[in-house]
Amino acid sequence: MADALGRPMRDLRISITDRCNFRCVYCMPKTVFGRDYAFLDRDELLTFEEITRIARVAAGHGVRKIRLTGGEPLLRRGVEDLIARLAALRTPSGEPLEIALTTNGSALAMKAAALKAAGLTRVTVSIDSLDDDLFQQMNDVRFPVDRVLAGIDAAHEAGLGPIRLNMVVKRGVNDHEVVDMARRFRGTPYTLRFIEYMDVGNTNGWSMDEVVPSAEVVQRIDDVFPLEPVGSLVAGETAKRWRYADGAGEIGVISSVTNAFCGTCNRARVSTEGKLFTCLFASEGHDLRALLRGGADDDALARAMRGIWESRDDRYSEIRSSLTPELRLARSRVEMSYIGG
Ligand code: SAM
Ligand code: SF4
Ligand code: SF4
Predict the structure, then answer these.
(1) Which atom of ligand 1 is nearest to the CA of 22?
(2) Which residue's CA is the closest to the ligand 1 atom numbered 20?
(3) 211 ligand 1 Cβ < 6 A
(4) What is the spatial distance between Cα 267 and Cα 314, in angstroms, rounded to a whole number?
(5) Relative to the CA of 196, which ligand 1 atom is closest?
(6) Where in the chain are the domains?
(7) What is the pLDDT of residue 155?
(8) Cα 303 to ligand 1 centre (Å)
(9) Residue 306: phi, psi to the nearest 5?
(10) Which end of the chain is more exposed for a tag (fewer CB within 10 A), N or C?
């Protein structure tokens, strides 16, 4: 199954809750996601049976990897049960899928062993600062960084590696920590990835001035710890990889703003309430839940997913720079906490 630009669907990201215990300034600012914010009701969420059906159909049509995300996916009650169901799925040639999860790490120390036992393959943990005060300011709920670090170690001990750590770099907020973060995680089992701050959603007040280009991140680290480029191993990989010349491991940079990778984008996303999005920056999703709850069988679901994917021609990050700020703002975009990263 390939889209209008010849890209296959390989990676399916499923948001399993729109709620989060953090209020990261670049994702769910408190001014918008406050006490009165209307999160989805429980019956609006896809059930585990519905999620598993979508994943099974997708696995029959080329998907090889499922990533659970959110909001904060570890807040969804019974997430281990869902993982066990997904881990039991097979591709047409009988292979298991890779089941990954992106988390803020707040519940990882408690849950890592159970997630591994349920069949989770690996985790990616978001960590934007090592300075406890700044970390607490960025998550805006005063959550201490030590507990996330303990969660990362617990995930490693549970065998949920190789673990990737994601740092969103925002100029004037945490960019002064780029080299300290690199220093802290060099020579550990963890691969740190620096993500350019993106204009996802309509609520984070994004401006290009706050983006630190990946080239600058690489330069700053290279000045202290020399780096060499590493060829990408996996088609559609979002991160450009660099290794430390002294053998202390690797970093990755995700340049969604300054060096878009739409040409190889093989990611589909399913929102918490079951809409299929063909791009992180799409304004509209396609309602799979209505099909599921309307009695569609697997063939009808597969036909619908194929039809949506085959008419896909998204490449927002490649055209972003050609949009005026007015045009960019006029496009309504779905929130990251609803669709996941
Ligand atoms: N709550 C989980 C977490 O934080 O890892 C999973 C969901 S979160 C939306 C997924 C990823 O998106 C995280 O790594 C987060 O840092 C990243 N993210 C959120 N807002 C972003 C933005 N404006 N630009 C770039 N990355 C962003
Ligand atoms: Fe929550 Fe993750 Fe968004 Fe932070 S980035 S507010 S942890 S969903
Ligand atoms: Fe894929 Fe859309 Fe991101 Fe381009 S902008 S890489 S098409 S999700």
Answers:
(1) 1
(2) 27
(3) no
(4) 11
(5) 25
(6) 11-339
(7) 98
(8) 31
(9) -65, -45
(10) N
Angle, helices 178-185 vs 214-224, to 10°: value is: 60
Distance 124 CA to ligand 2 centre (A): 13
Whether 185 is in the pocket of ligand 1, judged by its Cβ within 6 Å, is no
Query: Ligand 1: distance of its center to the CA of 275 in Å?
Result: 19
Q: Average pLDDT by consecutive 10-residue portion of the chain (341 residues)?
A: 93 97 94 94 97 98 97 98 98 97 98 98 98 98 98 98 96 98 98 93 81 97 97 74 97 91 92 95 92 96 96 87 74 73 70
pLDDT on residue 235: 65
Q: Which of 206, 209, 214, 283 is nearest to 25 (CA)?
A: 206
Looking at the CA of residue 71, tell me the nearest atom of ligand 2: 8
Asked if 163 and 148 count as a contact pair (C-beta separation under 8 A), the reply is no
Ramachandran area for residue 195 (φ above 0: left; ψ -120 to 50: alpha; else beta): beta
Is the distance from CB of 97 to CB of 83 less than 8 angstroms?
A: no
Strands 164-169 and 122-126: parallel
Q: How many Å lie between the centroid of ligand 3 and the Cα of residue 236?
A: 11
**Nearest-angstrom CA–CA distance, 111 and 123:** 12
Rounded to whole angstroms, the maximal C-alpha distance in the chain is 59
Ligand 3 atom closest to Cα of residue 316: 5
pLDDT of residue 118: 98
Return d(Cα 266, Cα 164) in angstroms, integer: 20
Contact 335, 39 (CB under 8 A): no
Handedness of CA 100, 104, 107, 110 (dihedral sign): positive
Structure-block tokens of residue 136: 């607490």
The residue contributing the CA closest to ligand 2 atom 4 is 24
Specify the length of the chain in residues.
Answer: 341
Q: What is the pLDDT of residue 332?
A: 67
What pLDDT shows up at residue 233?
58
Q: Within a 10 A sphere around the Cβ of 12, how many other Cβ atoms?
A: 23
Q: Which CATH class is domain 11-339?
A: alpha beta
Q: What is the dihedral of CA 211, 184, 164, 110, to 10 degrees?
A: -120
Q: Is 124 exposed, middle or buried (0-12, 13-18, 19+ CB in 10 A)?
A: buried
